Amino acid sequence: MILENKTILIMGIRNKWSIAYGIAKSAYDNGAKLIFTYMGEENKSKIEQLTSEFEGSKAYVLDNAAQDDLVKEVFSKIKKENGKIDGIVHAIAHANTEDLHNDFIYTSREGFSHANDVSAYSFVLTARMAKQLEMLNENASLVTLTYHGSTKVLEGYNVMGIAKAALESSVRYLAENLGKEGMRVNAVSAGPIKTLSAKGIKDFNSILTEVEKRAPLHRNVTTIQVGNVATFLLSDMSEAITGQVIYADSGYNIMGV
Ligand SMILES: NC(=O)c1ccc[n+]([C@@H]2O[C@H](COP(=O)([O-])OP(=O)(O)OC[C@H]3O[C@@H](n4cnc5c(N)ncnc54)[C@H](O)[C@@H]3O)[C@@H](O)[C@H]2O)c1
Fold first, then answer.
1. How far apart are the CA of 110 and the centre of ligand 1, in A?
2. pLDDT bucket at 257, cuts 50 / 70 / 90
3. Helices (H), the chain
4. What pLDDT does 242 receive?
5. For residue 123, is pLDDT > 90?
6. Which pLDDT value is given to residue 225?
7. Taking residues 6-23, what's their average pLDDT?
8. Residue 116 Cβ < 6 Å to ligand 1
9. Pick from 25, 58, 36, 86: which is nearest to 226 by CA?
10. Catalytic annotation present for 147
11. For ligand 1, is residue 166 a contact (CB within 6 Å)?
12. Is the Cβ–Cβ distance between 113 and 33 less than 8 Å?
């Protein structure tokens, strides 16, 4: 029970296929008390039903994790109702559909800015707001989700690759800033998983097939496996690790031609 007595905020749960859900399952099974944020008031009952298996958990609507005043409002409420927390999982990303379907060169300024705002800046905002509102306990751990498309060209990942590169670099800068207070910041680079977000990526099934064919472990990863890595990073077992991108991808990223 490596998360016993820890309260973890998980941002970005949408349904049972979400990576956030796999992380929640793993963190809960390892003793964590959970708090969630999700998008869309209209999803309230669906999310409450989904998270009811995590006894004692609470869920809050956060319609745009990249909007300062909304994040401040929701985080203030979370702190008031739950006290300080020990970790945050940021599992949020979005890009406009046309920017994932057209060649990257046609990415609009608005699309470029939107993908970076929601998928990278929201993590910086999360960290800053949590610090400013003094939400985090000593030794708190922040974890975000990234993908291999940050460093390699994957057809159809396009502007999201740029956003993930910004996110990974933000992890390093945030780790330096928060390290002064004993807090850690890391990313899990998950292998491809068929979630609702992934459905927006062109030819996603062929990426899954390729991983099975070429990854050292010759299999795709599950949300629970990714969740177990996040649980480790949220726990004191990983207290020597900060500013890192840890791959949970069946080893796919090490392969050359
Ligand atoms: N599925 C994959 O293959 C894969 C691989 C590596 C990394 N990731 C990353 O994992 C994270 C979770 O994605 P997922 O695959 O579980 O998909 P998902 O669709 O289940 O989750 C994405 C979440 O982002 C939320 N979101 C989008 N825009 C938002 C905004 N403006 N404000 C607040 N929330 C917003 C959605 O509501 C949703 O809950 C993302 O960062 C994604 O890039 C996914």
1. 19
2. confident
3. 19-29, 44-51, 68-82, 97-101, 109-116, 122-132, 158-179, 204-214, 223-234
4. 98
5. yes
6. 98
7. 98
8. no
9. 25
10. yes
11. no
12. no
Q: What's the DSSP call for residue 192?
A: P
With a 6 A CB cut-off, is 61 part of the ligand 1 pocket?
no
Q: What is the mean pLDDT of residues 43-67?
A: 98
- The pick from 9, 36, 92 for probing ligand 1's pocket by mutation, whose C-beta has the most ligand atoms within 8 angstroms, reads 92
pLDDT at position 60, please? 98
Which amino acid is it at 2? I
Residue recorded with tokens 């796999």: 22
> Is 60 annotated in the active site?
no
Q: Provide the pLDDT for residue 202.
A: 85
pLDDT at 92 over 90: yes
The CA 200 to ligand 1 mean position distance, Å, reads 11
Q: Is 190's C-beta closer than 6 angstroms to any atom of ligand 1?
A: yes
For the full predicted model, state whether its pTM sits above 0.90: yes
Residue 2's pLDDT is 98
With a cut of 90, say whether residue 208 has pLDDT above it: yes
DSSP state of 189: E
Residue 78 φ/ψ region, left for φ over 0, alpha for ψ in the -120 to 50 degree band, beta for the rest: alpha
Domains and CATH numbers, the chain: 7-248 (3.40.50.720)
Tokens of 182: 């004993």
Contact of 14 with 24, CB cutoff 8 Å? no
